[in-house]
Amino acid sequence: VGPLSWVDGPRCHQGMSSAETPEDPPAKQNAPHIAPNLLELLSEEAFSTEALLDVLSSSGESLSYKDPNRMMEDMIDYVVSAPDEALTQDQAIDVLSFMARAEPATHGRLIAQGAPAAAFICLARGAGSPLIQEWGCAAIWNLAQEPENEGQLVEAGAIEEILQAMQRFPEEPGLQERGCGALAALACSDPGEARLRASGACSLLVQCAQAPEPRTRHWALTALYLALEHGEEAGAVDPNSTAAAALVSLAQPADSLDRPVLTALTLLEPLATTAHKTLATKDGLTSLVQALDRNRSSSAIQLAACSVAAAILPLSRDERTLAAECGLPAAVQAAMDAHQSDAAIGVKARMALAGLSPSYSGYLTNMVRAYFQSWRL
């Protein structure tokens, strides 16, 4: 999923304070290889991506080309070659916003042209602007959508640049969302996954996984899942703090956006053993019951929640009593009843009910039924 697919990104020049708007435009001699008419547009204070595209569509003959991607390459060349003081913050926003909307088919060309370096220059130029930092994360996120580009971006230092941007403005929800999304995209590759753990990003992602914004929680949990996919190596993150952060999404009121709930459950299943002391508590068990009760119609969430309930086994006698008081056996049974035709839910629910049963006969009955029901899969 691309960085701008769920919500609109920040618009160019909106939300900029007068202190963020530089007075002096860049000098033309800083980029002599760019067509003069394009450089003139780049040098105007009123320059914007929309205006540039309007020029392309209405009077393309006046430019040396009509291809917006070729134009983007010249803009990247200009950013990389221009001195720091020659690049205005408005221009940085426009270059980054163009990268954030570039079509996937052009990503390879843009990266080869130097898009990562241009994005990092823009981020450094706009270190005091949360808008530039947000667009920078969105640009890296978009460029990382193609698997073949992930390694190049990671090698260029994209993860470290994103972390710096997120740490500069921890209270900016749009920036945190796009930063988490970019980290999740980069963690899809093996080098990115290892770099994410080594960079210390997991502790920041744990904080973002508890944010009030559901999209930020979703992408933070996704990045954590990818970073920990092959185990909690080198103590990159504490499993109990990660599980506690995931429980935040399970305890949220039901809404139309169920992705954070499903992502949290997906992360909790492999953590069930190492984070047992967090999940087998009143808060943990109650959150699991809430996820089951509030999303009864979603077979994906019911399966994931029953899988977590089965994964936290075995429980001690006191823990089984607590689970019964929280209503976990009833919630698991209701999930199985609501999705009787779903054999996968049936197997996981039976396994969970076996471990939650207070008697040996109940355990044996449910395990036998789970065994026979698994034949349907």
Describe this protein's structure:
This protein is mainly alpha-helical and 377 residues long. The chain contains 22 helices and no strands. The longest helix is centred in the first third of the chain and has 14 residues, at 68-81. The radius of gyration is 25 Å and the shape is elongated. The two termini are 30 Å apart. The model is unreliable at 1-39 and 55-65 (pLDDT under 50).
Give a brief description.
By secondary structure, this protein is mainly α. The chain has helices at 36-43, 49-59, 68-81, 89-101, 107-113, 115-125, 130-143, 147-156, 158-168, 173-186, 190-198, 201-208, 214-227, 239-250, 259-271, 276-279, 282-294, 299-311, 317-326, 328-338, 343-356, 360-373.
Q: What class, by secondary structure content? A: mainly alpha
* Strand content bin: under 5%
What series of H and E elements makes up the topology? HHHHHHHHHHHHHHHHHHHHHH
Identify the overall geometry.
Answer: elongated
Number of strand segments:
0
Give the integer mean of the pLDDT values: 78
Largest sheet: none
Provide the gyration radius in Å. 25 Å
Helix content: 55-70%
| Unreliable stretches covering 5 or more consecutive residues | 1-39, 55-65
Counted by DSSP, the helix tally is 22
Note the gap between the termini: 30 Å
List the main descriptive attributes of the protein structure presented here:
disordered N terminus, 22 helices, mainly alpha, 66% helix, 377 residues
Task: Chart the SSEs and their pairings.
Elements: H1 36-43, H2 49-59, H3 68-81, H4 89-101, H5 107-113, H6 115-125, H7 130-143, H8 147-156, H9 158-168, H10 173-186, H11 190-198, H12 201-208, H13 214-227, H14 239-250, H15 259-271, H16 276-279, H17 282-294, H18 299-311, H19 317-326, H20 328-338, H21 343-356, H22 360-373
Helix pairs in contact: 3-4, 3-6, 4-6, 4-7, 6-7, 7-9, 7-10, 8-11, 9-10, 10-13, 12-13, 13-15, 14-15, 14-17, 15-18, 17-18, 17-20, 18-20, 18-21, 20-21, 21-22
